[in-house]
């Protein structure tokens, strides 16, 4: 059964590692360090979807996951590169991914990235960075803003009210105009202020 020493620990600290071999869980000051390696017999090519069992090489990657008890969780994961057996596939070699934990070129788990994106949308840069630090996921304000910019644009429906505003890029030299779709909020409860009694 995957799990190595302390097979219950993946479900506590990093549920995505249930299907991996956890080698060690270590308390490193203010960080929980998990060393693990993948054990799946095959991996599917992301380009053509063909499963492959031919291992090309191994390497270690670092992924940050959701914090535990306010402390960041750092996963040092040994993954494998596989040969793709489909002759017509452009991807000759590919790296296996762990569902819920790794993505291509990502240094944060899927859940941690979703949490930080929600913080960035709600609080933006500096305030978002302070909040992320409090929950054990330190991140810079610039990275949070990049996460917001990387989000896909929402679908544009029928515009009923359009707001127009001017702003200065450089005061006195360069100006810009922004168009904002405005949705009026209709309050469910209306009241009127009574005049003060004399």
In words, what does this structure look like?
With 198 residues, this protein is an alpha+beta fold.
Contiguous helical run count: 4
Distance between the termini: 81 Å
* DSSP E strands, number: 9
- Give me the strand/helix succession: HEEEEEEEHHHEE
**Percent of residues in helical segments?**
10-25%
What's the main sheet like? 5 strands, mixed
State mean pLDDT (0 to 100 scale): 80
Could you list the spans in which at least 5 consecutive residues all have pLDDT below 50?
Answer: 1-6, 186-198
Provide the gyration radius in Å: 24 Å
**Strand percentage:** 25-35%
By oligomeric state, this entry counts as single chain
The helix-and-strand class reads alpha+beta
The shape is extended
Notable characteristics:
198 residues; 4 helices; 34% strand; 5-stranded mixed sheet; disordered N terminus; two-stranded antiparallel ribbon
Compile the SSE list and pairings.
Layout: H1 9-13, E1 20-28, E2 31-38, E3 43-44, E4 51-52, E5 55-68, E6 71-83, E7 93-95, H2 110-123, H3 126-134, H4 141-149, E8 162-170, E9 174-181
Parallel strand pairs: 2-6
Antiparallel strand pairs: 1-2, 3-4, 5-6, 6-7, 8-9
Outline:
By secondary structure, the protein is of the alpha+beta class. It has four helices and nine strands; from the N terminus they run H-E-E-E-E-E-E-E-H-H-H-E-E.
